[in-house]
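Forum: Protein Structure Q&A
Topic: Joint prediction for protein chains with partners

I've read a bunch of threads here and the consensus seems to be that you should model interacting components together rather than docking separate models afterwards. I'd like to see that in practice. Below is the full input, 720 residues plus whatever partners are listed. Could one of the regulars post the assembled result?
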Amino acid sequence: MVSAKKSPTVHLFIPCFVDQFYPGTGMATVRLLRNSGCEVVYEPEQTCCGQPAYNSGYRDEAAHLARRFLRLFMDAKAIVAPSASCVAMVRKHYGELGLVGEDAERWESLRTKIWELSEYLVDVLGVKKMEARFPHRVAYHTSCHGFRELGILEQPLSLLKSVKDIDLVELDDHRRCCGFGGTFAVKNSALSAAMGEDKLEAIRRSGAEVVTATDDSCLMHIGGLLSRQKQGVRTLHYAEILAGEKVEEGEE
Amino acid sequence: MSHASSPKDLKRNMKRALKTRPEIPPFKKNTRKAVDARNQRAAEWPDFEDRRKDVTSRRQKALDSLNELHVRLRKNWASNGVTVHEAVDAEEARRIVLGIVQKSGADRVLKSKSMLSEEIEINDALIAAGIESVETDLGEYIVQLRDEPPSHITMPGMHLTRVDVGKLFAEKLGVDYTEDPPALTQIARRTLRKQFLESEVGMVGVNFAVAETGHIITVTNEGNGRMVTTLPRVVIALMGWERVTQSMEDLAQLWQLLSRSATGQRASVYLNMMQGPDPENGGPEEVHVVVVDNGRRALERDEELREVLRCIRCGACLNACPVYQQVGGHPYGGVYPGPIGSVVTPALWGIRSAPDHPFASSLCGACEEVCPVSIPIPKMLLKLRQRRVDHRGWPDPEKTLWGRFRWVMDSKRIYESASGIARNAQKLWPGGGEKMVVPGWTDHRDAPVFAKKPFRTLFADSEKRRGK
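Posted by a regular:
Agreed with the consensus. Here's the joint model:
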């Protein structure tokens, strides 16, 4: 791995559901950042960026959590999160919350300092290659918020391609939504599942053993469908593949 | 046209649609074809994004000076001999149209495709007055024969297969069954051609009205729009108040983007330009424009949503929408389906008219990506979600839930103990944590399982090991 010239201090943002359900993603993020020469700081006061409330129409609740987030991270020089949609929430949607005064100033300053993990590794640190080995057929799922709101696609793919023995396959119609959509998955459950079913069909066609993505949230939905249907395909955040975890240990 | 279901029934309709849809739903196949065609045309222009930006700003400029453009338009209409009518709402629009038709003495109106005519429900009003209304666009003709509303803005029969159409024609027109599209088109053509020659009144929608010349523009592929505006003695053009464009140059740019986005054509087959009455040359004796407001002027003053008036009704967002692809247009209810419908319906007629529309989206952004006039549909859906929440009463279980969410997430201590309680509860679930019932979620999927230890604990442990 290419190490950065200085050793930048990176503040981790591990979104609430990653913290609780997918801590392996968080630990992989730590390992990747350290291997790339970063000092990693984690502030345990952090909880949620407010995205679920915002996407459900609860702007005041979201704004409250946004102000909390901005206070907590205001001194950070770089914030890195292994979740494109949470990064999009902070970078883009905080601007829609009617923040004023010092909250607005904090956002203005922080929105250029928060990065999705692969953005930070590739675009900021210039990392090109991974040491990991992953001898499996892997399908990369393009997360809508990552791709359409942040323009993320090449960064994680370039890193995944450099993994030894990986058989990286493209899903048919890979830019199509998997149907997660936050509380949409619960409010319009049947619709969300029908959309997911099309994604599963694409996954089956690809012959992948593992589905990976920038977002554990998409993977929670895809994985929940796969597991309900006993499809024998696993989901794993790309950070865990890059960090060299074995797929068998993926969930913990 | 039969009545569309109410937009208020969206959630029920969508659930039902998923249960009753055919194994290979036509809208799934047809949207895919339309998306491929559109993408191919977009890829053909290396500067497509710039053209999109250009057209967006032309459209926005027109909206920003709409009052002024309307003044010029009226002046040109007056000198071109066009009669102008103003309708504040659907009811007034119906009354005006009915008045014109009745005065002409006609007992039949020939229609070219118009979404606005669906919006003001003119067909029902005409039928109630004993006047026959005949759709001449093939797709519209088909859904009219089926007594259904259109399921798509530009492809009304998007939800049908050629077998459906073959059966329909055999049943309703008494012809031999065929599912050969050219043969079906010929059948419709023969039936309609006779009506063209016999009808006194034609009615068209208006894609654009050009302020600097007064031209009334209708974009079609079948030539029916031209026949409807030239053969009958009286022509009625139904126009949404926002459909003004400043110049022919604007029109040229808009038309190209509209064609490419709607059907993946470089240009539509017809671009019908009507200037006014022209009986000396075989044109109509009377040309009436009915300018319909029906919520548009108020929407123009709505800072958060006014940009939606840029919409040129190409339907590209419907094709690209993964929700529309699953259920087609009918479950949305009302007139305008798909992502743009989920904005337009509550934007024009209030959130109470379509309370669930803003939520029928995963916010994936595919709609905004293909919109030729860059309408930020997901952002607008979010604004509308907020309006829906603002309209909720109190007490309200959902509001309470999000209040609790905020309370939990506002404190490390509460967050950690709440997640700890949930973790332990899930451990006790018979058959394993992934079998835990989470309303909505676990209807179709296994539940996510709390990790043995959250990240925060794993991280603290590893820091200890590192001696920090």
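Chain B has a mean pLDDT of 95.
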